[in-house]
Amino acid sequence: MISTSLQSPRPPVGELLRQWRERRRLSQLELSIQADISTRHLSFVETGRSKPSSEMIVRLTEQLNVPLRERNQVLLAGGYAPAYPETALSAPEMAAVREAVRRVLAGHEPYPALMVDRHWNLLDANAGIALFTEGCAPELLAPPVNVLRLGLHPGGMARHITNLAEWRGHLLDRLQRQAAATADPVLSELHEEVSAYQSPEHPAGSPAIGPSIVVPLHYRYGDRNLSFFSTTAVFGTPLDITLSELAIESFFPADPQTAAFLTAR
Q1: Residues near 224 by Cβ (< 8 Å), separated by ≥ 6?
Q2: 49-72: pLDDT as tens digits
Q3: pLDDT value of position 214
Q4: pLDDT below 70 — which residues of the chain?
Q5: Fold observed for domain 9-77
Q6: CA angle at residue 242 from 171 to 253, to 5 degrees?
Q7: What is the pTM of this model?
Q8: The sheet that has 217-221: what strands, in order across it?
Q9: Between 20 and 30 A from 129 (CA), which of 113, 142, 143, 182?
Q10: Where in the chain is the domain with CATH 3.30.450.180?
């Protein structure tokens, strides 16, 4: 058993709220207007002169778009029970969610699609994703598979990506913004790790025809140059932590040649 004296003390609730407000770059006045409370009251809460109710904490964290997992931590810091459950994806009550995800993934075939958790660990995928995993180092495919590690590691997809610098910059920027928005140390560590990967030698990609409206993924598969763009889908208005942290990444062909090749496979 870990001694309580060795555990890191939880910051006061007011300090946590102030940290989240500053992370969102809001002034006390701006947040107080959004939350429909007085600036004086908010100031008293942040400095510890006033103890917020659980309802006030929920209201402020909602306005600050604090992730559900961290909202529970703020409630605990205020002396209240967590308000948001965390249900395992394998639990019976998540059966409808699992079925919905499987329908979305299967319905996207023959194009690749996958589902990840908050740390970009692969939870499910359709048959089309084999296009990207084929030939990747076995250690990168050993569970839990991290999609960003698989995508940017020299032994993974990176050696097949012909616009690696562009795609790598897009993923690293996305990961950095996610880490900043959630204050998740695991994401910060992942960003540090994948940023250090050395780019492998790779063939030059085909020149783009016209301006791109999204960041493309140009992928060499055998003797073919395939082109994709991706979309991300999340569950709307989730009240469960697990559900709020799921994301489905779907890849679409960005040109007729890619679409024809995938349809014919």
Answers
A1: 261
A2: 999 999 999 999 999 999 999 999
A3: 82
A4: 1-8, 199-213
A5: 434 Repressor (Amino-terminal Domain) (1.10.260)
A6: 40
A7: 0.87
A8: 122-125, 113-116, 247-253, 224-233, 217-221
A9: 182
A10: 92-264
3-class secondary structure for 125-190? ECHHHHHHHCCCCHHHHCCCCEHHHHHHCCCCHHHHECCHHHHHHHHHHHHHHHHHHHCCHHHHHH
- At the top level of CATH, which class does the domain 92-264 belong to? alpha beta
Residue spans in the chain of domains classed CATH 1.10.260.40: 9-77
Cβ–Cβ under 8 Å, residues 119 and 194? no
Rounded to whole angstroms, how far apart are CA atoms 100 and 115?
A: 12
Give residue 204's pLDDT: 40
Structure tokens at 36: 């429909």
Closest CA to 151 of 139, 143, 164: 164
Question: What does the pLDDT read at residue 83?
Answer: 97
Task: Give the H/E segment covering residue 226.
Answer: strand 224-233
CA-closest candidate to residue 186, choices 142, 233, 121, 249: 121
pLDDT at 234: 95
What is residue 41's predicted lDDT score, i.e. its pLDDT? 97
